[in-house]
Write a structure and sequence with these properties.
The chain is mainly α. Helices cover 64% and strands 0% of the residues. The protein contains 4 helices and no strands. It has helices at 28-51, 72-96, 105-138, 151-192.
């Protein structure tokens, strides 16, 4: 296929000609706004969960909740928090992005979905960085000096860590999907209401 270019626009998809070149396909301001909204809702829901006793686990015996008190309810709260935050962030990113003129609806759908996913990813990475920093700072605090670790307490802590990891992984995978879908919904509503 000599002379064929892949940058040519399909006239069936774009009857008005090629869309304006040079404009970015990524609206970072919308992604950042969605990220801030998602993180704010995450912090609010974690605080609410803590008030209901769903987020208080201590690895030290005699200090705070026991490690084996991590319940299915706490795991479900982690999932609900992630899903609601991803939905809000993705929706905001899709709804607040600039309007793309002259693009095929499939391309707009992809971009909106990508904006929702990028909002979820940015919020997740930022919260992970904050969690790691908080964990590192808390290691400087003096822990209980008379902690006696038995095989049973170590096994209980290991089981809680495994349950927490399963719930977190499930919430993150579905949160990415929900953020992407919410971005597409927000973008579609953005285009319906100029």
């Amino acid at each position: 296929m000599v002379g064929e270019t892949y940058s040519a626009v399909d006239p069936a998809l774009y009857p008005n000609g090629a869309p304006a070149a040079g404009a970015s396909a990524v609206s970072w301001s919308a992604i950042i706004a969605g990220t801030v909204g998602a993180m704010a809702l995450t912090l609010t829901l974690f605080a609410l969960g803590s008030a209901f006793g769903l987020a208080s686990v201590s690895p030290w015996p005699g200090v705070g909740a026991k490690p084996d008190t991590f319940t299915i309810g706490a795991g479900i709260w982690i999932i609900v928090t992630q899903w609601l935050s991803a939905a809000l962030g993705g929706y905001l990113a899709g709804r607040l992005r600039v309007r793309w003129h002259g693009l095929h609806t499939d391309e707009v759908f992809f971009r909106d979905t990508a904006h929702g996913f990028m909002t979820w990813a940015t919020a997740t990475v930022l919260i992970a960085v904050v969690a790691v920093a908080a964990s590192a700072l808390s290691s400087f605090a003096a822990g209980p000096q008379d902690v006696e670790m038995t095989k049973d307490t170590i096994d209980a802590a290991r089981k809680v860590a495994a349950s927490f990891a399963v719930f977190t992984a499930l919430s993150l995978v579905v949160g990415a999907f929900i953020g992407s879908v919410s971005g597409a919904i927000g973008g579609r509503l953005r285009d319906l209401h100029p």
